[in-house]
Amino acid sequence: MAIGLVMQFSGVGIKDYNDVMKLLELESPGVTGVKNDWPVGIISHVAGATENGWCVVDTWESQEKFDAFMQSHLGPALGKTGMPEPQVTPFEVYNSYP
Question: What's the rounded Cα separation, in Å, for the pair 9 and 84?
């Protein structure tokens, strides 16, 4: 079953996000010329600024696939950049488009 994850990063901005994307070798408007091999199991990814920091909303095939990516790639990248662990709100995906 697909899951959605809303990840809130307090006090984080676009530079911090792009630093993590560089380490993950994933493109964003501020990061180009990287491999851009998105992790196995991700369905969608959107990110942007909020009043309090940065928000990422992902859809994954399963919690297990996100947890594996967090353990192997995202967690270490967050640590290297000094970004805080996000506040994560998971939910079961009932409907999505497309």
Answer: 7
Q: Let me know: does 66 contact 6? Beta carbons within 8 Å.
A: no
β-strand partners of 55: 8, 48
Q: Going from the N-terminus, what domains does the chain have, and what CATH number goes with each? A: 3-92 (3.30.70.100)
Reduced to 3 states, what is the DSSP secondary structure of residue 66?
Answer: helix
Q: Cα separation of 14 and 9, whole Å?
A: 11
pTM of the complete model:
0.93
Give tens-digit pLDDT for 31-75: 999 999 999 999 999 999 999 999 999 999 999 999 999 999 999
Please state the φ and ψ torsions of residue 81, each to the nearest 5 degrees: -90, -10
